Structures are given as structure tokens and as C-alpha cells.
Amino acid sequence: MRLDIKRKLSARTDRVKSVDMHPTEPWVLASLYSGQVHIWNYETQTQVKTFEVSDLPVRAAKFIARKNWIITGSDDMQLRVYNYNTHERVTAFDAHQDYIRCIAVHPTLPYVLTGSDD
């Protein structure tokens, strides 16, 4: 298989722990070891939003575009949901007894799956 890469996004950041792409906007969501989550516009090569999520690494983050949300999982074992337009935190709760490693979002139903080492 051969990929024809036309453009790349390159930015100097802390260690990137996960990435996700928005289904309709030209955005990439990156969760960082620093505890921040950034949204980058891959067409303009600019950072458009930053969320200060935790003092610990954010290992997983996903868009929930139908709600204008992002969901994050971090090393403090918390899941947090933010509205990416208003930066408002929608909810936060303890989800695991160890680091949250991955998140999966159902495309149409209100289901979120998370993975951890616990």
C-alpha cells in the first residue's frame, strides 16, 4: 500500500499520547503528557483551542462531534467531558483505579468505552 501524503502538521509540543480527527472540521485533537489537550487546524497549520485538563498526562482523548464535545482520560483516573466551543466542562468523574489508556466513542449511541490497566 502506498500513501500519497500531501500535507503534514508539524508542531513542537510535549509528548503526544493520543490523536483523533474531527469528522467534519479540519481539526486534529492531541492529548499531551503535560496534561493539556490541543485542537489543531490541519489546513491552516494553527492551534485553535487549548484545554488545561490535568496536572498529570492525558493519555486518551476523542471528539464527540454530534454534541460539540471532547472526552479525555488522564492519569488521575478521571474522565472529563468539555464543550469544545465554550470550553465549559460538562462533567467529570472517576472512571478507573489506574491510568486511562484508551477511549472509544459509539458513532450514534450515547456509549463510551474506556480501557485501563486496572
Task: Tell me what you see in this structure.
This protein has strands at residues 16-21, 27-32, 36-41, 46-52, 58-64, 69-74, 78-83, 89-94, 100-105, 112-116. It has 118 residues and is an all-beta fold. It has one domain (16-116): Lipocalin, CATH 2.40.128.630. It has a four-stranded antiparallel beta sheet with strand order 1-2-3-4, with no helix packed on it. The chain has a four-stranded antiparallel beta sheet with strand order 5-6-7-8, with no helix packed on it. Strand 9 and strand 10 form a beta hairpin. The chain is globular and about 40 Å long.
Q: What would the principal axes of the Cα set say about the shape? A: globular
Radius of gyration over all CA atoms, rounded: 14 Å
Order of helices and strands: EEEEEEEEEE
| CATH domain topology | Lipocalin
Q: Strand order, biggest sheet?
A: 1-2-3-4
The secondary structure category is mainly beta
